[in-house]
Amino acid sequence: MQRIFPEETHRGWGLVRWSWVIAMAIVWLQRGLHFEERYTDAGAVVVRTYIPINDLFYFSPTGGWVVYLVLLASLVMVGLSRWTRAFLVVALVCHLSLCFTEGMNFKGYDRLMAWQAVCLMVAPGRIDGKSAGLPLARYCALITYLGLYGQTGWEKILAEPTWWEGLPLMYNMVHRNFGDMPLGVMISDVEWLMVPMAWGTLVFEAGFPILYWFKKIRPWLLLLGVGFHLGILVLMNVPNFTFASFVMYPVLFMPREYDEISARVRGHWGSLRQRFST
Amino acid sequence: MLKTLQRLLALGFLLIFGGYHVACVLQYRDFGLDWRPSKMVGTNVFWFARWKMFTGLSTYHTVPDFQGRSFDDATQLMGDWTSLPMAEWYPARWESGYRWERPAAYNRSNVQVKFLELACERSGAAQVRLVLRKWKATLGQREQPIKRYSEKALGVLPCDRKGPTAKGVRL
Question: N or C: which end of chain A has fewer CB within 10 A?
Fold first, then answer.
């Protein structure tokens, strides 16, 4: 048991907690615009969706705003590390209630951020990266990301053979809603660029659950992941997914790897500041 | 002793967490058009950790268009169908577009009818309908003009009729 769950201090948890708060805030602040139409009966209250929660409850404009404000307040408390776990539960309940009652736009990143909240709830100490504890939360984060990349990658390989020709990626770039970004549209018909990019996507996503376990490859794989998400941010119109995906990256590194990388980043940052100050 | 108990609890939690994720990989099926919540107790609860993103190939643009028509007292006939400015009335957008632009909205009659009701309320028309326009996407350009499109009428709602309503408590 001790070999599976050794005590560890992962300094990345503080950054993860903050990243989660920022990702949630980015998503939910945007949704404040036209909130009543989206989440209350001022718009359409759809019935018989994934989970028919509207047959249990749905929100009036006042009720919806109360839940929304409680959600935002909870995020602030989680960010400030005050009764963190309790406010994580509150934030998660509000997040899920609004997403379920809306019923139509329960995005992949909404679910991802919900799983991240669960991981944070079982993270050690005050979720500030200072306390030692069991690596349960890190394992949960890992399961989530192995599933996230592995499933979507293998689904592409097994269910859509045109991925090897780059076609889905090319057409995603000109999708009216998910695409339509200037650079993405510009390169969407450049086959010699799009085909290797599609292959790269398949190798990264489908390979992630395998390559992650190789100690020497792992840091490069995660670095590639950062590049992959930055690419999506620039080329496609799904920014929220990028912010949500980055949240758990610090704890995907082993504690020692994280310490080494953050020391190196701090070192570079320090010398950069010194150079500009002189 | 306390540490051992803590580890046992952690193992239990991890098994449930991992088990659910594995179940999502193994048992999820795409929701068919005949899907009803009564089937929720089957395999369909295993979707919360199911990830399938930008997988399929779609070479077409699909846009729903809400249209309404009113009764003409002079001729005692229904007028012509005219497009309704739903985007102006209900401007909330996600990355996937307006709410009614989701396939889950226009492909499911019980969901579609809620948006038809909204169109009725705002337009004051006697009848509203939903038409789906589909046209080929063009690579390499931002302009995606609607040319040579196909049109499919999805549903019509006389505005004196209502669809099923949510049975839950209004909070």
Answer: C
